[in-house]
Amino acid sequence: MKKSKTNQIKNENVKKRGTFTIVFAVLFVAVVILVNFFSTSLAQKLPTTIDLTADKTGTLTVENVDFIKSIENEVEIVVCAPRESYTGSDMVGYASTVYYVTENNTPDNYFNQTVTKA
Hints:
By secondary structure, the chain is mostly helical.
């Protein structure tokens, strides 16, 4: 059985297209990885929060940081809200969904401290 010339041409076209598709896919994946790498490194170097208020009241200044570092006494935080508004399943669900915080019994878990100490 002899292969015809048209079958050889079709096979060559399939090989060329297949090779092109593989090369394109590899280049596409490489570009995606590079973009991901550079965007991650750029995000780590830039500030993650931006104060958009007109008078910059949400910005933590050097004076604020120095003042906070100079505090030596224990600080008591008073929550002006009923306990039901920040405890219970609604708050736990909100904190875990929005802030990825879980309620557990570790001593450094501030969410748990807020719920149990209030």
